[in-house]
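Researcher: Structure prediction, please.
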Amino acid sequence: MSTLNSTVERVTQRIIERSKDTRKRYLDLIAHEADHQPDRSAVSCSNLAHAYAGALEDQQALKTGRGPNIGIVTSYNDMLSAHQPYGRYPERLKIYAREVGATAQVAGATPAMCDGVTQGEAGMELSLFSRDVIALSTGVALSHAMYDGTLLLGICDKIVPGLVIGALQFGHLPAIFVPSGPMPSGIANKEKQRVRQLYAEGKVGRDELLESESASYHSPGTCTFYGTANSNQMMMELMGLHIPGAAFVQPGTKLRQALDREAVHRVAAIGKDGNDYRPFGRCVDEKAIVNAVVGLLATGGSTNHAIHIPAMARAAGVQIDWTDFSELSAVVPLLARVYPNGSGDVNHFHTAGGIGYVIGELLDAGLAHRDIMTVSGADLGQYAQEPGLDGDSLTWRPIGSSADDTMLRPVATPFLPDGGMRLVEGNLGRAIFKTSAVGPERYTIEAPCRVFSTQHAVAQAFANGELDRDVIVVVRFQGPRANGMPELHALTPPLGVLQDRGYKVALVTDGRMSGASGKVPAAIHCTPEALGGGPLACLQDGDIVRLCAVDGTLSTTADLASRTPATAPLPATGTGREIYGMFRAGADEAEKGGSAMLAAAGY
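Model: Predicted structure follows.
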């Protein structure tokens, strides 16, 4: 067994020490909940009658307490392709529960919005805070004290982190994530990218663009690029919260159904009354959180998780920051290139060896914690195998070497020696720079800045030819408290065009970019945000800004202290943004997770 890498060990121990008090409070909370969880046989008959009235053929089993009752929390809707398959899941999951003498009920549902649909639209300003709403919805679902375990049906961007945060408030219960898998591959990613750029340049129209996009996003299942949704699935594997190998098996296959069935059987077996109690709050510990970061770095995953991981960790009493990310990134090599960081998508990645191959390499190199409490019953080593079927029986087998070294490489010959997510800081604050998709020749950009308060203003300036020069584009008042920290993915095509024209271009923003952030150097999630007097609020057009991933610099030569911060635009109205005002007002900084709910709860 490999010795743990010294940096991984040091960072983990620092997180453990930093989290000593908050983790103890959390563990005390879930221990108290476990000890005081009501025995349903002692609950009021009227309460029970309400809970069992809709259970149909499971009524008698519930009345007699014959076995564990599993609460299903679903994020089904049929607008979101990744979650469309969940529509029929409860029927199957209830059948699988009966096979082992258990019962299952849909405890509740959560919203599931799609950043792909709201990209560049008003609804994107609700996106980050939908994570808090999902966590709150999960809390409501599980508040009925009728459940002995939880199945969490969620995949996409804010949905998995929200489900994690909500389920951790009931961390005395076992919980397993049940993904539904990616859609089959569509057109080549290079072709999709080509048409997007042609559209940004005005060389093709909306009809051609829509035809291209529809050939890419074409059927039920997760989008196949390696953005936040698929990074979520990777993290659930590295944290041991899936049935091993469940992440990237396509919907509607026999293997997918076998993995779903195993999830139900397994959650019924790891409850408090069994011999293998695995409470969710114990599974999500400091080592599991470090594994999530390591996996993110090794695969070039979504920068959104620089916000989501600290939020999930806080909900479990674990304190992690961007310095921890950056130090881990220095020793974790980049093992995967999946679109938009490479040419192949997650289906090609899975066929080449996928997340099981990555986990095996990380464990062999001592870069991940093997000794975590997984839901499978084994240590993380089981997640270094791939699932398959022997007749109708679910089995796991060794993966062997990578089947495509243009997409997946061993630790000995990585794509990059580091994980491609670096902390940059200076007199403009602290921010994340994702280097894994950016050429090393663009790691340092120093140029006059052009300051904007909306991404639409950037698009207009680009269309007018005002940005045809070396420029650092600053988009401020995009943080959690200003407007909910929308994703600014719509900036990527025009900035990419400028870069292709030979200009030195970079982006600096207190807003978000996703796993699809692309090839333009960017300092994102800048904190403190501009609203409230953060340094970005004092920048002016023409100030020289330096962004350097090599020495970790984000700075300006301007005398910011002598200036009065710019006035933030008034909050936009419509599309439900008014009722999210309480989330904006209460949100904390991006490095802590940008959450109003966790801040209010004192985490």
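Model: Residues 20-36 form the longest helix (17 residues).
Researcher: Thanks, that helps.
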